[in-house]
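Incident log, support desk, overnight shift.

02:14 A customer reports that sequence design results differ from what the structure should imply. Their input is reproduced verbatim below. On-call engineer (initials T.W.) acknowledged and began investigating.
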């Protein structure tokens, strides 16, 4: 229960910071949040829609950059900063990188690909907690498909994958999470 309160406080602070930053500088044009099913590719997983694996909460801020020519780059390129909090005593992640969002010209549908790095807190967990990764620093890739349900509001299905590439001593297949998120554009 304690961790749920911590996550709620962190999400509240992120929303407050995003609202304050947007009002002053217009640098945070979008904030997203949602829930993820953890480890959907693990051997003991029942697949993508295993509701017993929903144990992660996610929040992400996407920042504004000057628009590039749509002829040269047919996507919106934005830096992002986010966190995936585990509510069941496993690793939580803090991540950052670049997102490329492709929007269809007529339909309210978009696709997005992201690439970046992440930090995980596995070494700080309770003794005896199984370690999935050998490093604190990880690579992160994600993809989303979404729909703009209202002007300034979207829903998306997101898959994210974390890996240390096997470079840190543990034979790790990484971690793949799948979930649903809502986004608000300012």
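02:41 Re-run completed on a clean worker. Output:
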């Amino acid at each position: 229960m304690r961790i749920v309160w911590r996550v709620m406080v962190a999400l509240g602070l992120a929303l407050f910071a995003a609202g304050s930053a947007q009002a002053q500088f217009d640098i945070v044009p979008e904030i997203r949040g949602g829930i993820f099913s953890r480890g959907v590719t693990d051997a003991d997983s029942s697949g993508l829609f295993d509701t017993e694996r929903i144990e992660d909460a996610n929040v992400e801020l996407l920042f504004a950059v000057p628009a590039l020519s749509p002829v040269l780059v047919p996507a919106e390129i934005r830096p992002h900063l986010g966190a995936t909090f585990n509510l069941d005593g496993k690793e939580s992640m803090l991540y950052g990188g670049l997102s490329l969002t492709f929007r269809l010209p007529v339909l309210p549908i978009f696709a997005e690909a992201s690439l970046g790095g992440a930090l995980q807190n596995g070494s700080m967990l309770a003794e005896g907690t199984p370690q999935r990764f050998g490093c604190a620093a990880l690579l992160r890739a994600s993809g989303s498909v979404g729909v703009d349900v209202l002007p300034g509001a979207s829903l998306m299905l997101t898959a994210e994958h974390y890996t240390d590439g096997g470079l840190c001593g543990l034979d790790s297949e990484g971690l793949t999470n799948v979930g649903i998120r809502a986004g608000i554009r300012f």
